[in-house]
Amino acid sequence: MRQVILDTETTGLEPREGHRIIEIGAVEMLNRSISGRDYHQYLNPDREIDDEAVRVHGLTQDFLADKPAFADVADAFLEFVAGAQLIIHNAAFDLGFINHELAQLGPAYGRIEDHVSGVLDTLHLARRMHPGQRNSLDALCKRYKVDNSTRELHGALLDSRILADVYLAMTGGQSSLGLDAQDGGLGDGKAHAPRPLPADRPRLKVMMASADELAAHEQRMAAVAKAAGGEAVWGRLGTN
């Protein structure tokens, strides 16, 4: 299973008003393990950036002046996400901007949904799991104990890496299995194989219940069933 966690930063809030993408960050995950491959690109929007947007992400026109246009990197970006399930927080925002950029390139590029296997919106997922609660990325980091202490400003690649950890925590998996600990969690564009277990690693000891323990268990289940006025549910599961 190949998934790509994706985030963008933009010049403003509404592509229909001419706002553009200025940063794309994406992290690859294979079979629920972060592979270490990612895609990161700053973009020259060829327009002014709203002051409020600069306060969010810190990206200025001077910094982006020598960066490529979206048209120059579109093929490489689409190649990276091709066939994957996209995982995005508040997906409608990012998809709207990406599809606006693709539309400027002509109908041959279609929509981003034409290039991927599907889209999972973690904001919608969080709202189902935690109705009535705050479900921003920062709030989810706090809820799931994901370290976001380096997130002073929004950044597409940083936010994608944080979202990957949040998504795995939300859905009961492990995170950062493929990351190189020496690169500060930013990845080096290469997939890392898991470290092999040492040959002399002792076998795990299997502890079986004794006859006395099994008898005590049966007595306890009988007491639970009596208190409940019927058979305990564990009794229907068998003893295997």
Strand and helix map with partners:
Blueprint: E1 2-10, E2 21-30, E3 33-42, H1 51-57, H2 61-64, H3 70-81, E4 85-88, H4 91-104, E5 118-121, H5 122-129, H6 137-144, H7 156-170, H8 211-228
Parallel strand pairs: 1-4, 4-5
Antiparallel strand pairs: 1-2, 2-3
Helix pairs in contact: 6-7
Tags for this model:
alpha/beta, elongated, 15% strand, single chain, five-stranded mixed β-sheet, 240 residues
Structural summary, described in words:
The protein is of the alpha/beta class and 240 residues long. Helix content is 36%, strand content 15%. It has helices at residues 51-57, 61-64, 70-81, 91-104, 122-129, 137-144, 156-170, 211-228, and strands at residues 2-10, 21-30, 33-42, 85-88, 118-121. The longest helix has 18 residues, at 211-228.
Brief characterization of the structure:
This protein is of the alpha/beta class. The protein has 8 helices and 5 strands.
Order of helices and strands: EEEHHHEHEHHHH
Give the overall average pLDDT. Answer: 84
What does the main sheet amount to?
Answer: 5 strands, mixed
Rg over CA atoms, rounded to whole Å, is: 24 Å
From the structure provided, what is the oligomeric state, counting identical versus distinct chains? Answer: single chain
Given as residue ranges, the uncertain stretches (5+ residues, pLDDT < 50) are 175-198
Helix percent band? 25-40%
